[in-house]
């Protein structure tokens, strides 16, 4: 039986325009695809989770509800952050979810976020180079970054090995459920340069 808090939160996100129109069930299914991708590489739930560019809370709120792990929902838009904080005041909301508002490039160097997460998830964050650069510092060495991918079979070519090497990352693999995901492992500490200043990862990508 689906948690009433989760249903209420996602329906409110949809009403406010932070999720696409239509039923919330496809958003939940997509979120569970991230869990399936994680399970391909790890045998137990992550110790900590961050949803980068959380928007209306997908996939972070679904994963936090199902795994029960400490979770951060990070978004750059104050209006979306306020809504996420409001949902966490609803009855029966999980107590281990927090919201951080700001640019991913800046918050990555906060002491309580830098290298603190075993898993980072992203959906519709941006081009692969910018996404990888903005994500890398949040993840502990040995942790995973899971990114939702387009269904195009050529999408695997979007991830550039030399560019990922530069960030201390490597492709662990690709997972297809009803959606497609790339699983990236952090294999080395983040070089001090990354992420670069606000907007630079997108304007001057490491690869294109």
Q: Which key terms come to mind for this protein?
A:
alpha/beta; SAM-dependent_MTases_sf; globular; 7-stranded mixed beta sheet; Rossmann fold; 7 strands; 208 residues; rRNA_ssu_MeTfrase_G; cytoplasm; rRNA (guanine-N7-)-methyltransferase activity; transferase
Task: Write up what this structure looks like.
InterPro entries: rRNA_ssu_MeTfrase_G, SAM-dependent_MTases_sf. One of its GO terms (cellular component) is cytosol. Keywords: Cytoplasm, rRNA processing, Transferase. One of its GO terms (molecular function) is rRNA (guanine-N7-)-methyltransferase activity. With 208 residues, the chain is an alpha/beta fold. It has one domain (4-192): 3-Layer(aba) Sandwich (Rossmann fold). Helices cover 33% and strands 22% of the residues. β2 (71-75), α4 and β3 form a beta-alpha-beta unit.
């Amino acid at each position: 039986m689906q948690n009433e808090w989760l249903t209420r939160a996602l329906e409110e996100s949809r009403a406010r325009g932070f999720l696409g129109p239509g039923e919330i069930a496809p958003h939940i299914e997509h979120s569970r695809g991230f869990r399936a991708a994680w399970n391909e590489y790890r045998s137990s739930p992550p110790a900590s989770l961050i949803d980068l560019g959380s928007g209306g809370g997908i996939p972070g709120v679904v994963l936090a509800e199902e795994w029960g792990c400490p979770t951060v929902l990070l978004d750059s838009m104050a209006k979306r952050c306020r809504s996420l904080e409001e949902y966490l005041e609803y009855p029966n909301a999980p107590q281990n979810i927090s919201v951080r508002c700001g640019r991913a490039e800046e918050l990555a160097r906060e002491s309580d976020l830098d290298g603190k997460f075993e898993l980072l998830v992203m959906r519709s964050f941006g081009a692969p180079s910018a996404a990888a650069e903005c994500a890398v510092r949040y993840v502990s060495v040995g942790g995973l970054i899971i990114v939702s991918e387009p269904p195009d079979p050529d999408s695997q070519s979007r991830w550039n090995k030399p560019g990922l090497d530069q960030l201390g990352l490597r492709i662990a693999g690709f997972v297809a459920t009803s959606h497609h995901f790339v699983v990236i492992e952090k294999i080395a500490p983040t070089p001090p340069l990354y992420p670069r200043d606000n907007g630079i990862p997108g304007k001057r990508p490491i690869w294109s």
